[in-house]
Amino acid sequence: MRAIVAGGGGHARSVIDVARSLGIDITGIVDPDVSLTYGSIPVVGQDDDLPMLLGTIAEAALLGVGYLGGGGGPRPRLFNDLSAFGYELPAIIDASAAIAQDATIGEATFVGKHAVVNAASSIGNATIINTHAVVEHDCIVDSFAHISVGAILCGGVSVGRGAFVGAGATVIQRVSIGENAIVGAGSVVLSDVPAGAKVMGVFHG
Ligand code: JB2
Questions:
Q1: What is the pLDDT of residue 68?
Q2: How far apart are CA 149 and CA 151, in angstroms?
Q3: In this structure, which residue's CA is closest to atom 9 in ligand 1?
Q4: Does the annotation count 204 as an active-site position?
Q5: Residue 123: is its pLDDT beyond 90?
Q6: Which of 65, 81, 165 to mutate to test the pocket of ligand 1 (most atoms within 8 A of CB)?
Q7: Among 11, 66, 74, 160, which is least packed, fewest CB within 10 Å?
Q8: Does ligand 1 have an atom closer than 6 angstroms to the CB of 63?
């Protein structure tokens, strides 16, 4: 499968590494920064060029943009556009990740090295379950959410669309994180976080 990557910064390096390990041929990067260089992978244009690139150099597209603020940054727009143009949007899951047999993972989602998605959990489209993150049993992680490096969601947690859980944060069982909420790195979340809220440290409502 030939794939183009949208966004050529730090997160793209992680995505490209896993994609290549899965045998995906990375044929180009699109990025608003046209002066970008990316080793042996050519920067072939900007987002406006994506319709023209489909079928020419790639059939699939990967989301290389990681965290650029709450609400999923440009990821929702990119996902919707790429889908409308007709690109395949495979989930990119590292071979070292542990995914339960009955877990479900949506399109264009990235699951990094040594991440865990445990039994009966459901992960939406274009989410990031980053390196060493743990999503325990019966969790729901909605589309465009981002579970950062080493964060832990205990059993039965729900994370709303576009929400961000920072590196190393721990969310105890059955807590709900609202849409577009931000949980700071290293936080301990003991009670529900409202939609759009930003919490850090020990949060108990
Ligand atoms: O709308 C866009 C767009 N907006 C920014 N379309 C496309 N195609 N690309 C876009 N970009 C590009 O994404 C920027 O021009 C830049 O090249 C790249 C973002 O790179 P950066 O390294 O700043 O962030 P990142 O999102 O790759 O990585 C962040 O998130 C990761 C999850 C960092 O915080 C990493 O440390 C973190 N691991």
A1: 66
A2: 6
A3: 7
A4: no
A5: yes
A6: 65
A7: 74
A8: no
Whole-model pTM? 0.96
CA distances from 167 to 146, 153, 182, 184 (A): 10, 12, 11, 8
Query: pLDDT per residue over 159-181, tens digit each?
Result: 999 999 999 999 999 999 999 99
Atom index in ligand 1 nearest the CA of residue 29 equals 8
Tokens matching residue 148: 């950062």
pLDDT at 140: 98
In angstroms, what is the span from residue 12 Cα to ligand 1's centroid? 7
What's 80-147 look like in SS3?
HHHHHHCCECCCEECCCCEECCCCEECCCCEECCCCEECCCCEECCCCEECCCCEECCCCEECCCCEE
- Pocket lining: 34 vs ligand 1, CB cutoff 6 Å: no
Tokens of residue 114, six digits: 């040594």
What integer best gives the mean pLDDT of the chain?
A: 96
Per-residue pLDDT tens digits for 90-101: 999 999 999 999
What count of Cα atoms within 13 Å lies in the side-chain half-sphere of residue 180? 8
Q: pLDDT of 46-85, one tens digit each?
A: 999 999 999 999 999 999 999 866 676 899 999 999 999 9
The token duo for 128 is: 């990031």
Q: Which of 13, 15, 31 to mutate to test the pocket of ligand 1 (most atoms within 8 A of CB)?
A: 31
Verify whether ligand 1 is closer than 6 Å to residue 65 (CB atom): yes
